[in-house]
Amino acid sequence: MYFLITSSGLYKPNKENQTTEIKRRVRLAFAAFYKLTYILKNKRYPQHFKTNVYNQCVLPVLTYGCQTWTFTKANMDKIIKTQRAMERQMLHIRLVDKKRNEWIRERTKVRDVRQEVKLKWRFAGHNIRQ
Q1: What does the H/E/C string look like for the chain?
Q2: Structural domain spans, the chain
Q3: By the 8 A CB rule, do 11 and 43 touch?
Q4: Predicted local confidence at residue 85, as pLDDT
Q5: Rounded to whole angstroms, how far apart are CA atoms 67 and 70?
Q6: Which tens digit of pLDDT belongs to each residue from 61-97?
Q7: Helices 101-108 and 73-91 sit at what angle, rounded to 10 degrees?
Q8: 110 or 129, which is more confident
Q9: Which residue has the higher pLDDT, 21 or 86?
Q10: With contact defined as beta carbons under 8 Å apart, do 32 and 82 qualify?
């Protein structure tokens, strides 16, 4: 059992407020992304540098605590859409440009959020078995 400490106090996550926690993680990830906008959206920096910054500073914020969530399709889609939106902003692509997700991933080369969640679940299982 664990508790989360937020600015509004201490609470224990459960199935009822998991969607709320995921929405909160999305907001915090966008806040981290926008704090690094001068790097992530700047055309002067090479893409591999932006990818490293994203993988090290934004992705952990988005996936923090995910090993305790039970994912529904809607919740996972919310996280995936968040990552795609950030990738599009990094490449200066709008939705109306109709670029495929595979094309975007080839350009950004960021780690997939699904893989990150899966790795955290595996690590949590490893810790439980010890």
Answers
A1: CCCEEECCEEECCCCCCHHHHHHHHHHHHHHHHHHCHHHHCCCCCCHHHHHHHHHHHHHHHHHCCHHHCCCCHHHHHHHHHHHHHHHHHHHCCCHHHCCCHHHHHHHHCCCCHHHHHHHHHHHHHHHHHC
A2: 16-129
A3: no
A4: 94
A5: 8
A6: 988 877 777 778 888 899 999 999 999 999 999 988 8
A7: 60
A8: 110
A9: 86
A10: no
